[in-house]
Amino acid sequence: MSIGKMQKYKEMMQQHVLRPYLPETHWLTRRRTLKMLRSYSSIFIKPDKGSGGSGIIRAKRKGERYEVRCNQERKYVRAQSIYEVIKFFRKPSQRYLVQRGLRLAKYKGAIFDVRIYMQKPESEWMISGKVARVASPRKFVTNFQKGGHAASLREVLSTLFPNSGNKVNSRLERIEQLSYIIAKTLDKQHSLRELGVDLAIEKNGRIWIIEANSKPGHMLFTQLSDKSELNTILENKHLIYSSGSELP
């Protein structure tokens, strides 16, 4: 059974260490949407149980109007009409949440975020893979299913912090610390063995927690020239699912 984004968000919010890294998130309502648009230049509307970047809607301020975009379709409206456009794009059978938009850093002109592949092949969590997910040109999501591609995380961070190995190392260290805390926090409630932790890095270097996917895909790691992390993931999958669970 899939775990909704809001449930995971609330569980992570209980951890005071994680709280500063979680962007403001609420159930979608007209009142909340308009209030968040007054606070932030962009917001994201996401299906609570969606995956792969499917169905995500972005509302972004463009002068006196807002661009509301879902996939390649976009509409330009004033603030008071945004909620009607969101209702047009969303699926009525799904529940949605609204989240603060982030100013993602870019790599070679495209936005990127971070995927940390966590696994628990035995009794302890481990990081099996770290990768940067780079969006396709003109896309606002980085997911592999939406054309996102893999890049070496250290290489990407090195372009974000040129001539500063200390900043690169400190971000990597913090990303790893947060990923372990997230895995242990959600594992207490749901007895997980795998987790895909997605983190954002803004242009100023600030780290945010985007999502923790309880059924992560590993195809992104097939794109890396170094196959060591992919091999680790697959070896751990064999250990995890040979015990009787079904391989996803």
Detailed description of the structure:
The structure is a single chain. The chain has helices at residues 5-13, 30-39, 82-89, 153-160, 165-190, 228-241, and strands at residues 25-27, 42-47, 57-62, 65-70, 73-77, 96-100, 106-107, 110-119, 126-134, 149-151, 194-201, 207-213. Helix 4 (153-160) crosses helix 5 (165-190). It contains 6 helices and 12 strands. It has 2 domains: 24-100, no CATH class; 106-241, ATP-grasp fold, B domain (D-amino Acid Aminotransferase, Chain A, domain 1). The longest helix has 26 residues, at 165-190. The protein has a 6-stranded antiparallel sheet, sandwiched between helices. Strands 7, 8, 9, 10, 11 and 12 form a 6-stranded antiparallel sheet that branches. The chain has 248 residues and is an alpha+beta fold. The protein starts with a helix and ends in a 7-residue tail after the last helix. Strand 7 and strand 8 (110-119) form a beta hairpin.
